[in-house]
Write a structure and sequence with these properties.
Blueprint lengths: L1 H13 L15 H11 L29 H23 L8 H23 L1 H4 L3 H22 L2 H13 L5 H10 L15 H10 L3 H12 L5 H10 L5 H6 L7 H34 L9 H12 L4 H4 L5 H16 L1 E5 L11 E7 L5 E10 L9 E6 L2 E2 L5 E2 L1 E9 L12 H19 L19 H7 L5 H7 L12 H11 L3 H18 L7 H12 L28 H17 L6 H12 L7 H9 L6 H6 L4
Parallel strand pairs: 3-7
Antiparallel strand pairs: 1-2, 2-3, 4-7, 5-6
């Protein structure tokens, strides 16, 4: 911690220097990093008035196409489909007794790696383009490509070739075996094939299955997939599962409902003491203001807000003045460099789709190897996607000749540009959001899987948010807050020590009660998707009293309407967010809290957890990194820090 504080002091001194050099993220750590940072901090200034030049250069290793017109997008989509058909025809023509990895599986894997960036070139314009025609063409291109993918998934001739190789069992390595497993249907314990409610599975069965009763069962199951919960259970059982929850969890890290229930009950029980104390505080506030009127669930957020206003000296509007976007980004790059050994360097004179877009290349800090590229499209504008997210534009993968395709990511945000020459100032929530999304950027760039199918963020859905949630932890540490902050009119003035402490305490303010409410939703979701003939109103009443410490649900309300928007579309998987938070907390507390910029541990996380991607089970990756199975205890302990 003393080393980190020393870096902050030197960094504050560096803020007094200015430079007109182009932005370049330094390739040093420790004392050397501080010295070079002192001379280069201003290199992160983001200008919104870049002039386009006619001699734009391309990015090394990039297959992503930029600034395609509407007609060019559609033509590229058609070429993608034609090339894909050509390769699949070639694979399908291989005699079954002459099938090898090289003349079948390798060709399809290489095609997938080659075309991923081209497909994304067609699709990402719908998120960022200023042109409505281009956005419409992007949507149409997606429709054409999806239709082709569906047609390929139904090809019996391709299936026979893949099956022939699978039967041989001539795996080149465990990752190749996992890849081939993804191309064939799985079997259950009874050796029956599993059919998932995906359009490519369903259409293939309806078109090709000779057994009429099977076609009917599958058609009925698919037709009822969006109906009532009981219908979800029915179609899950048609596929051999006990209930819908077991079906939904089969391909997730949690695996079974029993494990999810144990997980949620364990956390809920551990939080009861803290949550009871928090609720008592809120009830006292209401009693002082309203007398003996009972405290209801409708009072929860109001009195939390009242209590926070009283106990935390935090003016978030004033705090915004200390987070100019360029300074925050410089700090994020510094943290990522020191932790994970990634050096980001801005590449100028590169073709982009809007003057606000910046491009960075990411290099390995030790070897200098180019690992990937990053596009930053931070500011809101008409027609642009309205949320903050990271898109993989090109995934890291190995080609047949052993060369590696580099990763490329696009970070989209909706920040408001500063007016009349003033810098863009971030709300603290936007600072946290940027740290979160850069966790996804690191996840994308550090992936070293052999196959595109396991690369980037194509990992277990219960795992995909863990690196991003892990990164959020650094936002609340005093040394890092001072690194990324500075009053916008004098950036040598970071936020005060007391403010740093208040932000950390505010993070966990009434966190046990808030989490209890989330657990309530998760338990309700898991039960209704695990049991038959549930009276959802009575169930919700029972759970509400039990989980929310005796607070009754609001009479006359529909339990389904109480679910937050983030839960919609996650039937039987609402637990996933808490699941990811728990594992992220365990990683941070166990490996980083004592030494925030521990380069050795950061490199271990990069190599052991991020590099394999989806090629290995995430629980195996985390267990190897932690030296034990993940635990909920660190998460429970963190809730008591306020």
């Amino acid at each position: 911690m003393e080393e980190a504080q020393g870096e902050v002091v030197a960094t504050e001194q560096s803020k007094m220097k200015s430079s007109k050099q182009r932005r370049n993220v330094i390739a040093f750590t420790g004392g050397a990093a501080v010295l070079v940072l002192a001379a280069n901090l201003a290199i992160y200034a983001f200008s919104s008035h870049r002039k386009r030049k006619s001699d734009k250069k391309g990015l090394q290793g990039s297959s992503v196409r930029i600034n395609l017109s509407a007609s060019e997008i559609l033509k590229l989509a058609d070429r993608i489909v034609a090339k894909s058909k050509q390769v699949h025809d070639a694979v399908a023509s291989v005699p079954l007794d002459k099938v090898t990895y090289e003349n079948s599986i390798s060709l399809m894997a290489d095609l997938e790696a080659e075309q991923f960036a081209l497909i994304q070139s067609c699709l990402f314009p719908k998120f960022v383009s200023d042109s409505e025609d281009v956005r419409k063409a992007s949507v149409e291109a997606e429709r054409r490509i999806d239709a082709h993918v569906l047609a390929c998934s139904k090809r019996e001739d391709l299936y026979r070739v893949v099956k022939a190789f699978s039967v041989k069992g001539d795996w080149t390595n465990p990752e190749a075996k996992q890849y081939i497993k993804c191309l064939s249907l799985e079997k259950d314990a009874g050796r029956k094939y599993k059919i998932y409610m995906r359009s490519n599975h369903i259409v293939a069965v309806l078109e090709l299955c000779k057994v009429g009763q099977t076609r009917k069962r599958v058609a009925v199951a698919y037709g009822k997939r969006c109906g009532q919960v009981e219908q979800r259970h029915k179609y899950a059982r048609l596929l051999g599962y006990l209930n819908f929850a077991e079906f939904a969890l089969d391909l997730r890290m949690a695996k079974t409902s029993a494990k999810v229930f144990d997980f949620l009950e364990d956390i809920s029980g551990s939080l009861t003491h803290l949550a009871t104390r928090e609720l008592s505080i809120l009830k006292d506030i209401k009693k002082n203001e309203d007398g003996d009127l009972p405290f209801g669930i409708e009072d929860l957020l109001y009195y939390i807000k009242r209590s926070e206003a009283k106990h935390f000296d935090l003016d978030f509007k004033a705090l915004k003045q200390f987070f100019p976007v360029d300074l925050v980004l410089s700090g994020i790059f510094k943290v990522i460099q020191d932790l994970f050994g990634l050096r980001f360097e801005e590449i100028g004179n590169v073709e982009v789709w809007h003057p606000d877009v910046s491009v960075f290349s990411a290099f390995d800090l030790t070897s200098g190897e180019l690992l990937g590229h990053l596009y930053l499209d931070l500011y809101t504008r008409e027609g642009k996607y309205g949320h903050t997210c990271v898109l993989a534009l090109q995934n890291s993968a190995l080609s047949q000749d052993g060369t590696r395709q580099i990763a490329m990511a696009l970070l989209i945000s909706r920040l408001q540009k500063g007016k009349e020459g003033n810098p863009c100032l971030l709300r603290f929530s936007e600072v946290v959001s940027l740290f979160h999304e850069f966790g996804h950027v690191v996840q994308n760039i550090c992936n070293r899987a052999s196959y595109t199918r396991f690369s980037g963020m194509r990992v277990d859905p219960d795992f995909v948010e863990i690196p991003a949630l892990l990164m959020e932890n650094w936002c609340y540490e005093s040394s890092i807050l001072k690194l990324i902050s500075g009053f916008h009119q004098d950036i040598t003035m970071p936020i005060k020590d007391e403010t740093c402490k208040s932000l950390k305490r505010w993070r966990y303010s009434f966190s046990s009660l808030k989490l209890k409410q989330e657990i309530l939703y998760c338990l309700f979701d898991q039960i209704v998707h695990s049991a038959d003939n549930v009276d959802i109103v009575e169930l919700y009443k029972h759970l509400h009293l039990k989980v929310m410490l005796g607070l009754p649900m609001l009479e006359g309300t529909n339990p389904a309407s109480c679910f937050p928007r983030s839960a919609i579309g996650y039937e039987a998987a609402c637990y996933s967010r808490i699941w990811s938070e728990v594992f992220a907390a365990d990683i941070f507390a166990s490996k980083f809290r004592g030494n925030l910029l521990n380069h050795q541990v950061g490199i271990q996380f990069r190599n052991q957890v991020l590099a394999p991607g989806g090629a290995k089970e995430p629980i195996e990756l985390l267990t190897e990194f932690l030296g034990r199975e993940p635990s909920v205890q660190a998460f429970i302990d963190s809730q008591s820090q306020h």
